């Protein structure tokens, strides 16, 4: 896979033979364009914004309309409640209303007060009220 330059600070990753080591899951994963974005965003949360690595979950399972799905990243607060849901796409995938709707379907189950959409080049952050009203934010919320 050709590694595209993304809109993130520079991070160092263990990469070999088409795989990347996921520090969150402690295993080697196939290095797809979407995984490249997911690994960068996880590092942005932990290394740049100081979110606790122990409270970040990658590829968590959930059920949407009785269909099995996987959320890309979910950050939990110190009480174990979902805090931030991140939907990652490959860099060539545009962040459209369809991507927002997908993330909102996942968040209907997860119920995080913050939602992020990213393709590694463009990042969109929203606060989401308990009744589903969303407001776009300029930056990630502070943790804690």
From TrEMBL:
Instruction: Supply the InterPro entries for this chain.
Output: HSDR_N
The residues covered by the Type I restriction enzyme R protein N-terminal domain are: 33-141
> What name has this protein been given in UniProt?
Type I restriction enzyme R protein N terminus (HSDR_N)
Q: Which organism encodes this protein?
A: Siphonobacter aquaeclarae
């Amino acid at each position: 896979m050709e590694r595209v330059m993304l809109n993130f600070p520079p991070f160092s990753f263990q990469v070999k033979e088409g795989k990347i080591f996921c520090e969150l899951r402690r295993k080697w994963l196939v290095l797809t364009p979407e995984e490249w974005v997911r690994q960068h965003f996880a590092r942005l949360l932990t290394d740049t914004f100081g979110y606790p690595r122990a409270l970040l979950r990658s590829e968590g399972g959930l059920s949407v309309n009785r269909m099995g799905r996987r959320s890309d990243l979910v950050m939990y607060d110190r009480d174990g409640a979902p805090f931030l849901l991140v939907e990652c796409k490959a860099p060539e995938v545009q962040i459209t209303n369809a991507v927002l709707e997908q993330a909102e379907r996942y968040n209907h189950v997860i119920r995080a007060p913050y939602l992020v959409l990213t393709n590694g080049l463009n990042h969109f952050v929203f606060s989401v009220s308990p009744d589903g009203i969303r407001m776009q934010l300029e930056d990630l919320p502070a943790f804690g």
